């Protein structure tokens, strides 16, 4: 029997799928592979796979909350998880963006508290769930898992540093272009199911400011925006409009686990 997504793909034209995907709280799936898992040797990967359960991760699914040890960890196989910092007055800014290269919350495995950070699914997708205590046990037992998790911690630290500087120094249009490209890279799609309100939260600016910046990029022919959806029309031009953080972040992303033989 075909899956719901296969039925959608068979019945609806491609132009209609993003809107329906938003309604379903998910995106059309990229290849369901996690880069961290695929970078492990077959023996280590098989040991982990016995403890993994495939689960849907709809939009806004909480991955971890500040100051709490999570019950589960998730190897993301499609979709995007956002790490955000929340201020006391309620303002929110994104400090991390994780896709199928990651298992969010890796810092917690070092015994750290997340402070004001929380993580949730920004673009719905799928993942492989494992008990947090089981993953911590593997982290302590397996030198290979230990090394990969530490690589991800380093990657998240570099991302945090770069995004903090970006949010402070670069114009909204540059940051918006950078953000669109980063999300597109992680979901392997040029259509992003995102609203202006959500973008404003992620970029730490007002919705009206994001709307004006998106309008500038749209008039230039870089993107097409409809409510709840952004489509990249000209990637090279959009890259030229992005701040210098994008090529740096793209390189960090592509070089992650470069010392391993990956299946992705």
TrEMBL record:
Gene Ontology, cellular component aspect = cytosol
Domain HTH crp-type spans what residues? 170-236
Which GO MF terms does the UniProt record name?
DNA binding; DNA-binding transcription factor activity
> What UniProt keywords are attached to this protein's entry?
DNA-binding, Transcription, Transcription regulation
Q: Where is the Cyclic nucleotide-binding domain?
A: 36-110
The name this protein carries in UniProt is: cAMP-binding protein
What organism does the record attribute this protein to?
A: Terriglobus roseus (strain DSM 18391 / NRRL B-41598 / KBS 63)
């Amino acid at each position: 029997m075909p899956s719901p997504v296969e039925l959608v793909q068979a019945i609806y034209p491609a132009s209609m799928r993003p809107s329906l995907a938003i309604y379903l709280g998910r995106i059309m799936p990229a290849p369901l592979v996690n880069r961290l898992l695929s970078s492990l040797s077959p023996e280590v990967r098989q040991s982990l796979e016995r403890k993994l359960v495939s689960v849907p991760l709809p939009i806004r699914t909480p991955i971890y909350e500040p100051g709490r040890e999570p019950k589960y960890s998730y190897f993301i196989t499609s979709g995007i998880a956002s790490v955000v910092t929340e201020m006391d007055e309620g303002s929110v800014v994104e400090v991390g963006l994780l896709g199928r290269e990651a298992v969010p919350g890796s810092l917690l495995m070092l015994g750290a508290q997340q402070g004001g950070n929380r993580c949730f699914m920004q673009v719905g997708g799928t993942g492989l769930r494992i008990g947090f205590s089981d993953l911590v046990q593997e982290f302590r037992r397996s030198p290979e898992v230990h090394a990969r998790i530490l690589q991800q911690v380093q990657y998240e630290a570099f991302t945090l540093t770069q995004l903090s500087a970006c949010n402070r120094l670069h114009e909204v249009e540059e940051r918006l272009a950078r953000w669109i490209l980063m999300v597109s890279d992680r979901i392997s799609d040029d259509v992003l199911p995102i609203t202006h309100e959500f973008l404003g939260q992620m970029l730490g600016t007002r919705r009206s400011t994001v709307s004006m910046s998106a309008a500038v990029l749209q008039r230039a022919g870089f993107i097409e925006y409809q409510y709840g959806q952004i489509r990249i029309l000209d990637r090279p031009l959009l890259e030229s409009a992005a701040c210098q953080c994008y090529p740096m972040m793209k390189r960090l992303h592509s070089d992650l686990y470069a010392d391993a033989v990956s299946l992705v």
